[in-house]
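Issue 218. Parser rejects a valid record. Input:
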Amino acid sequence: MSARPYIVGIAGGTGSGKTTVALKLAGAMPAGRCITLEHDAYYRDQGHLSPEVRAELNYDHPAALESSLLSHHLRELRAGHAVEVPIYDFTTHTRRRETRTVEPAPVIIVEGILVFTDAALRELMDIKIFVDTDPDIRLMRRIRRDLEQRGRTFQSVRDQYYATVRPMHLEFVEPTKRWADLIIPEGGDNRVAIDVLLGQLWRVVNEQ
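Output the parser choked on:
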């Protein structure tokens, strides 16, 4: 690559549509010119704890994520080096032994609910986007995802929402709007915002 990669940070509450935004942006880029990293992949491995203790942990607090490793990987990618990204198993709250090899690219998209809470991560980002969606819509999306994709029961999802998801959103996620360069209402359904962002990313790609 002839220039330093352009790093896009995408944050927002659970179920806000930030992953949809990231996928739409990445999908519109030429093959091999854009990669995505999910902050969720960097959840700390809890294999040393019993399943009962793991289930009681607060996974919506910034301390639950190894953000320092994500920062290291972003710096390595900016330097032109491939990285080995963890693969996290949400049903067991552990990291798998295998990893995902990610090669550097002109555009790097980093998404997650807490990516703006870490100063080291923010400093690496060229543009920061906050996806803002109504709480009731986000909750329904969260319930559906946890039931269908993460093997959770409705009661466990409900209990977790009241115990940690909602209070952590109010304490850590919502305040990070102040660091956003751009706030997108309704996430991936906002075609105007997506088109504006794609225009910027295409300029980056064409300059490299």
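Fixed in the parser; the record now loads. The longest helix spans residues 154-173.
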